[in-house]
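Please review this one:
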Amino acid sequence: MTAAQDQHEGRKAALALAALMCAVSVTVLESMAVSVTLPAIARDFAVPATASTWVMGSAQLVIVALLLPMASLGGVVGYRKVYLTSLAVFATATMACMLAPNFPALVAARGLQAIGTAGAMSLGLALLRTVCSDARLGTAIGLMATTVALASSLGPAVSGLILTVASWRAVFGLLVVMSLIALVAGSIALPRVPPSGGKFDLLGAVLVAALLTAALVVINGLANGWSATVLLSAAAIFALALVAVLARSRGAAAPVFPTDLLARPVFALSIVASICAFTAQTLGFILLPFYLLYGAGFGELQMAVTLSVWPAATAILAPLIGRFSDRFPAGHTGAAGLAVLAIGFLLISGMDATPTAASIAIPFAICGMGFAIFQTPNNRLIMLAAPRERSAAASGSVSVARQFGRAVGTAIAAFALLSGPTASIDAMAAAAAIAGLGAVASMSRTWVRRTIS
């Protein structure tokens, strides 16, 4: 390849990366911003605050159920086609949310919106792998991680600012504009990846959706004190679906549930480490606001500014770690990152009853840096541990690990809050232990075989 050709390919890759960053920013911003609108939605439609949470809950169930099926569909018919169609569905559904005449219509529109989110979320890293060489994949994933961190930190602030001058519908209006921009950018810049030419396993997809949904119902049910009938029914569905999924996946070349990839020790340990990391992070994100408000006596603005230190540290460090991960083994790097995250949690758990904003910002920054050190090398390794033709399944698995880590972290946080908001600081020791468990899983990858560097 000549220098001019190499420069041209580099520009194409940069444009595709920018399009993917645009799309991931709108899906992440949506998940963070909509939560701030729940009180206004409940007031506008005259529904109880508990009922308004279905605006978030319905979308969560759909996303988890469809991540792996959408990844499988992308492998069969083409990443680009499914990805862009998903963005179009997201944009259309977001407009329906903005125009929803009543609460049931809003919940239904959010469910449709989640279908688009699942499709885009499941194939983002697969498309990234097609536009970046293996030697530069870590750098690209680091930039994506920075985008996620920035969107996560800006989402509540942007939503809150809009609500001071307009209704909650304006928040969805902003998301419509952003999703249309992402759709146009993707249509122009994303490459056409030849499909596998296989047949989509519809029954397998339904079984996987039932399996993941039942697991999420059990986790949420335990956290929220749902009836034994609901929990036992969900557990039975999970058990039956698991048996059926494993039976259907046996011998399949590209199963919807990636048993072929999970049979690879490096891949499986990386998924375990990711679940542990997101469980610990979610514990912190849910419980620390209660500690700052009711334990440390912070005001809401002071609390928000202090919490922003965490994602800001992640956003700053992630691109640097991305370049670093292209040169060094992920096992040691990931373990070091989770060890740093655990140290940050331990420092928080040992704080006195009246910390200053400056003193608590330091361990928050340590947590953010630890997560950045872990996440990018780990995601890079997951993608490179899978054959290129199974990139969609690997990408979907990354998203499933993230969602389940968040679900488990939310359940543990709910149990901790039963003892009162001030008890949340004690749970940081548990978060440290979970991060430590993830560090062990990450380091174990160096014991099963040499990691991909």
User: Anything to note?
Assistant: The two ends are 24 Å apart (CA to CA). The chain has three domains: 1-197, 202-251, 257-453. The chain has a mean pLDDT of 84. Residues 202-251 form one domain.
